[in-house]
Amino acid sequence: MTDLLPLTPDELLTTTRAVRRRLDLTRPVPMEVIREALEVALQAPSGGNRQKWHWIAVTDPALKARVAEYYRRSHLAYREAGGEPADAAAARIATSSDYLREVMAEVPVLMIGAIDTGGADLSGNQAGLWGSLLPAAWSLALALRARGLGTTWTTLHLEYEREVAEVLGIPADVRQGVLLPIAYTKGTDFRPGPRADLDSVLHVDGW
C-alpha cells in the first residue's frame, strides 16, 4: 500500500484543494496508485447501491491530446464569455485555470467519471443520477490527496461530451460527469481555502 500523508480526517477534508499550477507534470503516476485510490473511492454511496459508475483513466499521450484539445476549446469560450475577473482572488483562479488549459495534455492521468444511465430520460431534476457518481469522484480526490497526488474538478469538456465519448469509445448510454486531471503535487503543504461565513449559508428549521 502507498504511504499516506499524516493527515487527520479534518485536515484531509479541509486541505484537499483544486490543484492546477502545482501539478507535477514530470513525475509519472503508476497505475497501481490510481487503482488503489479508486478502490477507496468506490466505497462511496450510490443510489440503491447499484454502482453504475465507470472510470476512464486516459494515459495515452495521443488520446490525452485529443481530450485536452476539446477542453481547450471549451475553456477559451468560457473565459471569453466571462469577461475580466472581478477581483484579485478571481484573477488568481483565472490565471491558474488558463495554465491548466495549456498543459492539460501533459498531465499524467486524465480521469473521467461517468455513469450508465440505462437510456433514462435526463430532463428534469437529475440529482438522483449524479448523486450516484459525484460522491465517489470527490472520494477519489480525497484518496489521491492522502497519497500525495492532486487534481481539480473540471466539467468544461462536457461541452464536447459526444466528441470525447467518440475518442474514448464510451457508449451512448454512459454519460460523463467530471474530468479529474491527476498528478503528484509539488509539495503537500496545502491549507484550507476561504469560504463564506457559516451563518450566511446555514438555515435551521427553514429559510
TrEMBL record:
Organism domain of life: Bacteria
Name by which UniProt lists this protein: Nitroreductase family protein
InterPro entries, per the entry: Nitroreductase (IPR029479), Nitroreductase-like (IPR000415)
PANTHER family: NAD(P)H NITROREDUCTASE YDGI-RELATED, NADH DEHYDROGENASE_NAD(P)H NITROREDUCTASE XCC3605-RELATED
Similarity-based family: Belongs to the nitroreductase family.
Domain annotation Nitroreductase: ranges: 17-174
GO-annotated molecular function: oxidoreductase activity
Entry keywords, A to Z: Oxidoreductase
Alphabetical list of Pfam families matching this protein: Nitroreductase
